[in-house]
Design brief:
This protein is α/β, with parallel strands linked by helices and 239 residues long. It has a single domain, classed as Thiolase/Chalcone synthase (Peroxisomal Thiolase, Chain A, domain 1, 3-Layer(aba) Sandwich), CATH 3.40.47. The chain is built from seven helices and nine strands.
């Protein structure tokens, strides 16, 4: 599977190391800081959103500005787990539920908010596939462009730090991160993915999306290995 990236942006929490050397030739801009700072949301909009939606929608609006988006694909491993957990806590304490948090506790919260704020009426999907969520998002991008070769796709992946009670359920050091890319069939090939038996025989301490951001935006390695539960994947730069 070959992927052609027109443009993209990413942000990682400063708790992640990020790439040691930034590659200016790739179409993915990289940023890192202690806290995500929205640039395209009003204070009122930001106040009503969870951190995940705030990061996802704001970066999506940034990357999609001035672009024709034929389909938006959002992916997240844990989605609005923070909102859902808070609502469950309120129920157990017999407290009133917040209508805003209730409506924004579903997995397609970010895709819905993006469609509203960008006034984009094209179709969108929200993907969750456990630790394979990032890969399955890319597979969805690829299959759509095979069937609709003239379309342009916005792909967004994001995740946030887990509520304390759930941190022991995963071995990944999950903290806030978000990436938005625009794919089409007209741009130069940026990278390709092949399933295979190859592996780096090491397990990363970070979520794969974080490793991908550092890999694509950096100069360190030509290949990246994803040892997922379904299969192994080999990513190769074509830039």
């Amino acid at each position: 599977m070959k992927f052609k990236v027109k443009k993209g942006k990413s942000w990682l929490s400063a708790t992640y190391p990020g790439p040691s050397l930034i590659d200016d030739s790739v179409p993915l801009q990289f940023e890192s800081s202690d806290k995500y700072q929205p640039k395209h949301l009003t204070k009122g909009q930001s106040r009503r959103m969870s951190l995940l939606s705030k990061m996802t929608v704001d970066l999506s609006l940034d990357v999609a500005a001035g672009e024709k988006i034929d389909k938006a694909i959002f992916a997240s491993r844990h989605g609005e787990l923070g909102n859902s957990t808070h609502l469950i806590d309120l129920i157990t304490e017999s407290e009133l539920l917040s209508p805003t948090k209730f409506t924004q506790s579903v997995h397609n919260t970010s895709s819905g908010l993006f469609s509203i704020l960008s006034e984009n009426k094209s179709s969108s999907v929200s993907i969750s596939a456990g630790e394979n969520s990032f890969i399955m998002g890319l597979v969805s991008v690829y299959t759509h462009l095979q069937v609709n070769p003239h379309d342009q796709i916005l792909f967004v992946f994001s995740d946030c730090s887990l509520p304390e009670r759930y941190k022991s359920s995963t071995s990944d050091g999950i903290d806030d991160h978000v990436m938005a890319l625009i794919f089409n069939n007209d741009s130069p090939v940026s990278f390709e993915i092949k399933p295979g038996s190859e592996s780096n025989n090491t397990s990363s301490e970070f979520p794969f999306a974080v490793d991908f951001i550092s890999w694509l935006s950096g100069k360190d390695e030509e290949r990246l290995f994803a040892n997922e539960s379904l299969t192994n994947w080999v990513f190769t730069k074509c830039i």
